[in-house]
Here is the input.
Amino acid sequence: METGSPQNTGPAETGATAQAAGPVAGAQSEPAGAESEPAGAESEPAGTEGEPVWIALPPGLLKMRRLLLVVWLGLLALAAGLVPGLLAGPGWAAFAALPLAVLVWGWVMLERNWRSWRYAERADDLLLTRGVLWRQETVVPYGRMQLVEVTSGPVERHFDLASVQLHTAAAATDATIPGLVPAEAERLRDRLTELGEARSAGL
Here is the structure.
């Protein structure tokens, strides 16, 4: 009986200590995992919330502007070189180099300006940014829109383009989005008009 009692108490003590050690180890590992989940939950909304989806202008606008640049400066270079050359001598035809230099510079700057134009539709307002040297960003609240119209001149119609003009209660927040595809311009007009009516009715 004396020899049996130590053998029975030995496994019982070791089992109890193993059971006691198990929950302690698990309790220490669970808070580490629990702390890592909120950190990941906070980082996901930071990367997705509040970031507008920017929409660039179609390349047809750049093509139209470059064509107009070539036509006007090409005619100016022809006149600047031909008229002085005929009246004062062939050496004066070098004046044509000035409009040609402006043509090369304008060709590059038109692309940079075209790339700077972007707009984004948010929940409560429309963002519009443009400019190369001086960046300008306009925020147009939907509730202040009074009129949204689509315009298209003869040159724009030739290139299948249209512009959206936004008129608000404050003239400082008026904006124009040029060079859009007619289907996109009409979609934007209908959506902005609908949102403007809904926001103004809510006020």
About this structure: The radius of gyration is 35 Å. The beta strands are 55-56, 118-121, 125-130, 136-141, 145-151, 162-168, 175-180.
